[in-house]
Amino acid sequence: MPDLFRFRFFKSSSQWIVGGFFGMLIGIGLWLHNDYGVSWDEPNNHLNGLVSAKYLTQLVAPELVASQPSSRLIPDIQNFADADHGVAFELPLALLSFVFTHGDSQAFYRLRHICVFLVFVLGVWALYQLGKQRFESWRWGLLGAGLLVLSPRFFAEAFYNGKDIVYMAFFTLAIYTLVRLLHHPTRGRALVHGLATALAVDVRVQGLLLLVVTLVMLWLEARHRARNERGMLLRVGGVYSMAALIFTVLGWPYLWALPWKELLAATQRISQYPWAGRVVYFGQVLPGTQLPWHYIPVWIIITTPLPYVISALIGVGLWLRKISWRGRASVSSFAGRLDLLFVSWLLVPVLLVMALRPVVYDGWRHLYFIYPALILLAVHGVHTLAATARQRPQWRPVAISAALVVSGGMVHAAWRIVRDHPHQQTYFSILPPSFAQHNFDLDYWGLSYRQGLEWALTHDQAPTINVHSPWPSGHLVYTNSLILPPADRARLRFTNHQNADYILTNYRYRTHSFPDTIGREVHTIQVNGVRILSVFRRSDK
Fold first, then answer.
1. 23 and 135 co-located in one domain
2. What is the pTM of this model?
3. What is the C-alpha separation between 109 and 106, in angstroms, rounded?
C-alpha cells in the first residue's frame, strides 16, 4: 500500500508540475502577445489566407463573396503570386478574423499573435512528449521544453512568425506522431501521423521530407521486429502514405485550383525560390543567392545560447562514439533508433543546405524546424553524463559542471528575455555589441518600427505627423501602424523623405550610420548595446 500511494503521489505531482508549466506558458502568451509589432511578412501571409478563403467561399457561397465590398481587393487564387505557399495556418486564421475582428487591423494582429503563440505551445508540448518518451522521464522532457521556451529569438518569434515557428511546431508534432507510430504501429496512429505530416507540408512544401523520414524509419523498425510484425508495418506505411497525400491536398486549396501543368511549374519555382534580397554577413552586403557554405552554422551558433550548443555537440559526440563502438548494434534498441532520428533531424538539413546552397536568408529561420532536435540532443548530452556519473563516481564533477552550465545558460536566457522585451528577436549569444552592430542583420523583421511610431506619437502632439522610412523597409512604417489604436493611426501620414517630420530606420542592408543630413537623431532603440532602430527629426521641420 505505501508503494502504491507513493506511485500515485509522484504521478499526481508530475501532472501538476507539467500542467502548471504549460498553463503558465499560455498565461505568459496572453499577457505579452500585444507587445510586439507587425513583422515584414505578416500582411502578405494574411493575404494568402484570404485568397484561399475567397476561393473556397466562391465554391460554396459565391453570393457571400459578391456581397463583401472588400472581396474586390483580394486577388483570385490563380493570379496571386504567393498562392503556392501553404495555408494550413493562414486559412483558418483568415476565417477567424472574418468572424471576430470585423475589419479592425489592431484586433486582427492581436488575434494573429496569440494564435501563432498557441501553435508554438503545441510544438513545445510535442517536444516535451518526445523528451519524455526518449529519456523515460517527464523531468527530462520538461527540461527540453524549458530550453525551447528559454531561447530568446524563438520566444519573440513565437508571437509573430507565422511561417517558420508554425512550421517548426507542426514538424515537431509530426515527429512525435511518428515516434508513437514506431512504438506501436496501428492504422489509427498512421492516420494521425498522416494528418500531422499534411499540416507541416501545408505550411511549407519542404515538409514532404517527413514522408521520406517516416518510410525510412518504418523500414528500420521492420528490420528489428519479429517477422510476423513486418506485414503490419508495411500496411501501416501504406495507410500513412495515402493519408498524408490525401490530407495534404484537402488542406491546400491551391492544389485544387490550378491544372497539373501549372502545379509542376510552381514546384520548380518553390525549389528555386527567386528571392532578390540581400543580407549583411560579416560586414558584407551579399545577395541571398550567393551566401557562403558556413552561413547557416554561424547563424545557429551566434543566435543560440552557447550552453545549449555545447550540450548538443556533446550529445552528437556521444552518439558518434556509440556508433563507432557498437556499429549496427547501436540501433538495436528503440532508444537507439530515436537517437538516429534526432541526429538526422538536426544534421541532414544543415548538410544539405551547405552542399546544395539553396536560397536562404534572414539568419537561419528557414531551418528553425531543426531546433527541437538540437534541444533533444542537448538534453541527451546532459542525460548521458548524469547516467555515467551515477555509475562512475569519477565522472560526477563533469556531470555537475554540465548541469551548472546548462542551468546558468537557462537563467541567463530568461534574464535576456525579460530585459530585452519586446525585441528578443535581435538576441546574439556570443557577439560583442559593437561587432554585431556592423556585421550582421539586426531587426530584419522590422518589429521595432512599432515602438518608434509610438514614441513619435507620444512626444509630438501635432494632430498630423508625417513619417517616412528609407528603402527597403519603407512599408514597415505603415505595416506597424496597423496594430496601433485607431486614434493613433488617424494621426499618421506616410510620405516621402522631403515631406516627412520623422524618418525611422532599422538599418536594413546597412553596416554604417546615416549621415547628419538625414536629420537629428531624437530617439533610438538599443538591445544589449546594439542599436536596432533610430528616429530622426528633420532638421528643417
1. yes
2. 0.95
3. 5
